[in-house]
User: Fold this.
Amino acid sequence: MKRLIPTGEPARPVELRADPQPFPAPDEALVRVEAFSVNRGETFLLEDPAPGLRPGKDVAGLVVQAAADGSGPAAGTRVVGHPPAAGWAEYAAVPTHSLAALPESIGAVAAAALPLAGITALRLLRAAGAVTGRRLLLTGASGGVGHYVTELAAGAGAELTAVTATSERGARLAELGAARVVHDLADATGPFDTVLESTGGAALPAALARLRPGGTLIWFGQAGGRSAVLDFFSLLDGPENARIRHFHYAGAPYGDDLATLVGLVATGRLHPEIGRTADWSDTAAVLVDLRERRIRGNAVLTVGGAR
Ligand SMILES: NC(=O)c1ccc[n+]([C@@H]2O[C@H](COP(=O)([O-])OP(=O)(O)OC[C@H]3O[C@@H](n4cnc5c(N)ncnc54)[C@H](OP(=O)(O)O)[C@@H]3O)[C@@H](O)[C@H]2O)c1
Assistant:
């Protein structure tokens, strides 16, 4: 079979090569991959790939071999999955605790956009607590995670201000329920109960300054790759006693959260925003565009012409 292998070259970070089909562990199903998505975290891993790195955490396709231990879906079931790695391939071994069955109404392309970004959005909002009637500030809002957070938070009654680079990149966020879309943190009128920050650098202190006293900033990424520098005294000017919470979404099993996301999509309450779909032979170019902020929402690659 074929698999995308990291090259370490910035202009062409992966290439298709022949590779043995995976041999599933007893609690893993073998999935024939029809579509997968790529995420910003993977663009970071590909900058200096560890030896043996086999990327790919978001897959949708067909179970061709059920797990030997009898858990999970039967062969022939259409699924979405979140394996720990190795999903950018024609076949992937996926732990059954990180799979969810798909209804006919959800195609492989939409499904592949769900796992990492969608699970992160769900768990991030759980970390934020009750958001109904609360004022939220979301940076990096035009990305895969940001569109899901926006729609879920707005659906739960939050008043969300989304920060994105341009009006073109923010247009869909308003449709999904953002109360305001701004292109500069200086225009984000606070104070906010909660800040969801994932861009880093100067954005983190600027967003922190817009919290109400005692509010919480949930720090879940550093898309720009730059560390933040904080000044103690600046918080005495408003958001004193603010809290900063480091957040990482990880922690299997993922199957229940995937099933929740599938249910929300199937009932029209969540709309994957797929800014780019391409054949997986174009993955290298798509990764470069994602890295350079040229893709809104999720980027999905199809294997064998999936819908
Ligand atoms: N903590 C966790 O568990 C977890 C899980 C998943 C993802 N993440 C992180 O969460 C963030 C969002 O993930 P994602 O998959 O939605 O990423 P994404 O699709 O690449 O979106 C990130 C957004 O950040 C904005 N951004 C602002 N400054 C940037 C800069 N200097 N360079 C690049 N982008 C910049 C971009 O929007 P504009 O161009 O419109 O400003 C971009 O759309 C990333 O930092 C990712 O690493 C964290």
Remarks:
- The longest helix spans residues 115-128.
